[in-house]
What does this fold into?
Amino acid sequence: MLMLLSRFVRNRDGSVAPFLALSVLPLMAATGAAIDYSRANSTKVAIQAALDSTGLMLSREAADIPSADLGQKATIYFQSLFNRPEAQNVNLTHEFASPQQGSFTLKLTASATVPAMFAGFLGQSQMAVGATSEVLWGIKKLNLALALDNTGSMSSNGKMTALKAAAHDLLNTLQAAEKVPGDIKVSIIPFATDVNVGTQNVASAWIDWTEWDAANGTCTKSGSNQSRCLSNGGVWTPKNRSNWNGCVWDRDQNHDVQNTASGASAATKFRAHQASNCPSAMMPLSQSWTDLHSKIDAMTPAGNTNVTIGMSWAWQSLSPVEPMNAPAPQPDLDKVIILLTDGQNTENRWTSSTSSIDTRTQKACDNAKADNIKIYTVRVINGNASLLKNCATKPDMYYDVEDASELNTVFKSIAQNLANLRLSK
It folds into this structure.
């Protein structure tokens, strides 16, 4: 008996089978639980997608639907989008609010249960799933500056005509998105080598007349400017400043690429200049849609290109300092520039070197972005693509237009981004 018992203890034949039998149950349970979890997770993803789409559709009309009908409308939309037979006990709730005038939030929450096919062996007969979606809409306050190339080359290939049409459409889109009058203000900065600040500013302290007085006047002898007149022994008499056409050009460096407030220092003042091709006068931030449309219509292409001054004045028009005194930065206020040009930099106050002017333009762009100004750039057929890409806040905020007819599509896209409906959660 002792020998038989010893042989039995030492024998290992068939020992795997009992262990395998014991392990089958947890293996099947784990596999089944994974399948149930996958089904539940797939249902949750479907609920989330249906909620997001329901929120976006409902937000277009929620403000105009009676509160008592909003839940029914939400259910109709959701049920048309969510079709998962395995989901049971589906429940949908909504919360609609207007935190402030012109701003709305819609929160949708859905829950359901999915019967467990395998987890029941572990005592769980169903799995609960749910999701939440929140939509915010109603445009934030917006200060938008349009820096628009008005140089001579814009007269070719239908560019100016297309620009005007696109700008009108952009204004219409923004006006339609405005919930509270005054929440959206737009400035328009037509530019060439100069920007026209308007002859009504002739007596403004922020304009420096030194160069204008020296270049515009009469001499008792010969000389077309003060220096030549004096060198010939003559007396120079500046013209009456009422003859000024409203144009200014670059401030002293580095104020030419900054939004420094204009003060007592001549370096911070804007230099009056009797440009031979002075663009139409700029318009500071305005909420008058009629006046803004009229300003677009008044634009006329002429002169050479100085993108820097267009960029600088667009930024200046958004700055809460002299001379524009725009609204100060606020959490609910976006400040945006749309810069459009169709050519290379060709002339500024100091030089006709394209590379030198490009350097000034890039500095103006960099400084504006550092001031939390969002910049869209648009290149129309010609121009320095690399410069404009680098000027834009992000790569997808740069647009390369190969045909002027594309401008309307581009401006529609930008306008929709500015007046966007955004899904927050």
